[in-house]
Write a structure and sequence with these properties.
heterodimer; A: about 450 residues; mainly alpha; ABC transporter involved in vitamin B12 uptake, BtuC; 2 domains; about 0% strand; B: about 325 residues; 2 strands; about 75% helix; globular
Amino acid sequence: MRNYENVIYAYIIMLLLIICVGLFQSWSIALTILNYCLISAVMTIGANIQWGYAGLINFGIMGYTALGGLAVVLVSVDPVKKAWQVGGLNILGSIWIIVAIVFITRFILKRFEKSLIRNYSIAFLIIAGVILIRVTATPGIEAIESVDPAVSGFLGGMGLPVLMSWIMGAFLAGALAFIVGKIALGLRADYLAIATLLIAEIIVSIIKHEEWLARGVKNVIGLKRPAPYEVELQKTQWFRDFIEKIYSNKLELINTIAQKKIILNQLIIDASSIFVKLCFTSLFLSVVIILLIVTQKALYSPWGRKMRAIRDNEEAASAMGKNIVKEHLFIFILGSAIVGLAGAMMVTNDGLFTPGSYRPMRYTFVIWVMVIVGGTGNNFGAILGGFVVWFLWVEAAPISLFLIDLFTAHLPETNMIRSHLVESAPYFRFLLIGIGLLLIMRYRPQGIIPEKIIKQ
Amino acid sequence: MDFLNAIIVLFNFTVIPALAYGSQLALGAIFVTLIYAVLRFANFATGDMMSFGTMFAVILTYYFQSLGFGLGFLPTALLTIPFAILMMILYMLIIDKFVFSYYRIKKSPPVQFAMVSVGVMFVTQALIRIIIGPSDRRFLDGEKFIIKATEFKEMTGLAEGITLKSTQAITIIVTLVVVSIMFWFLNRTKTGTSMRAYSDNEDLALLSGIDPKRVVLITWVIAGILATIGGVLYGLDKSYRPFVYFNNMLPIFAAAIVGGIGNPYGAFFGGYVIAFAEILLTYSYKKFVAYLLPSSMEPNSLMQLLSTDYKFVVSFSILVIVLLIRPSGIFKGKTI
């Protein structure tokens, strides 16, 4: 147990911090932070599998997160029948054209020797294909987007339960990772970072601008939930009774019945939002725990040893007969699929899909900071990193406001420096995260909880 | 006449903007490539460093305007560039001293450098937002146009006009001057040669008595000049917004890699390749084709290959294609 002492301490401190938020700000905020911490933890598990286990640098986390979010829309939203009628065929037709182009290109690449004619013919094929796709898809897209543009204007999804979309999100992200891996995994580390960063940007900009797919920047709101809605919960009898029972001591102190009723209603409204958040928390927590058990088992299995061997010395591992290309591709897909799952979880938690909000700062670099800070190659560390960094990310603004107030207390309210600093308080989070990352990289490069190799 | 009109349409809407945008990208790409060649890492703080330099130019421009200084028909920002460059170089040297030099001495792997530069990116972004705020700022003053479309039409009697914004002309001229001085410096002077030697083979360069500290210092100085000028030119042409500068890092990386990373000529060329590809592929050729074809065959679609929303996607796709077919770039850069 001694080995795990500092891990347990670190987690207890983290939990206490979140409880502090609950006590000083509100329980609702604390639970929101906790939920996001758990989602971040899933993302860091994914990134840690790639970076910590195999040494693959993937700056494309944003793309997989967005794809996971897209999966929620594609799976859980009810299909828009009218849109399918007016433009479904065109879309399906263009998808078939894309598939055909890919297969013909592959065929040409396999069949013919490398030559200038081959290159030109492939280029011609792709350009002709793009024009053909535009010709077939444009009328369909226009028709779809003009179906109730204010509320739908897209094809909708499959109308399945939302939890199915988590699996779908992982699957979509994995599929993308397969393609990206095939293209980019042979590159040197920093090239891989740039390539994945740019590919993620391509994915997000496609999701943003193809409105027939998921309404693009117009956002999809009111997604299904795996938890009850607050409004309905407030009407259910057992929940009302339950709250009344909990707060019975407090309510007895109030004399008039009318006032009692008003206060009870307020309590029920507060409690319902907390209850819903707790439902999400338990769902997310179970995902994190399952992933943690599986990844921990995998890390200390022969497979995990193989991955570490490849990470630490590719040539030696290759000499031992391990297929490095295949293993890298596999682990790239696995990690990305977990990130996709996290993306789906996040959109489910928010209840809305906003492609415009996917920015590399928030969804790639912050996740990377989490992995580095927490401890690469150690799942407990990665999860802790997710918790710590997300907590700082959210709480940096209030903390910096407090500090600014403290240090500029002697200045008058209208002082220019003071008001300017107060205005820019939200940006101190970047400073905090950046300096934190630099300090960790310099003085504790293995992270808060370093990797432990158990010798068997 | 119709043929001439068609050419002028194409020139006005694609060639001029692409040349200006390409110059801005080229300056950034040379900055990336220099850091990569001499200091050996991919600098993820590129966009924000350019933004940092531009921020000083913006602040100084406002200050000079309040004092009443100006360059007449030229933008005041040109006057502030030298001061902004000094501040930028100072910042870069401080960052290098406290952050990068430690890893350089330790000979850390490039991945670690890249992660450290992500940390620098966060800090720089925070500083910019704390100092100047995230909002959109225009700091262009002086004459806006060199040639106006209406004047051009009157002069030549053609149906189509050419508009040349002064920022576009300034961008192209300043870029050509700066880049030629830099290439002259790299190829003809002793310091430039020692830099190239250090980049080619560090051990051999050290053996022949080249002072690594000096090389690193000069690299940061050149990088500071390029970053600030590139940033200010972009800001003059469009507007200054920190978030946009961060995003610009991506096409700049694409330009550097397409040209062959580590090769300044390649980066210069790559900037224009990316800019022309972005603009030519997303331009609507309707007007151009209408002039060339007889009026009965006038196209009714926009004749646009990709919608303008996909501007960035074009450059990134080019990068992916280059990485697939010729990973060392168009001009042979460092091997990957």
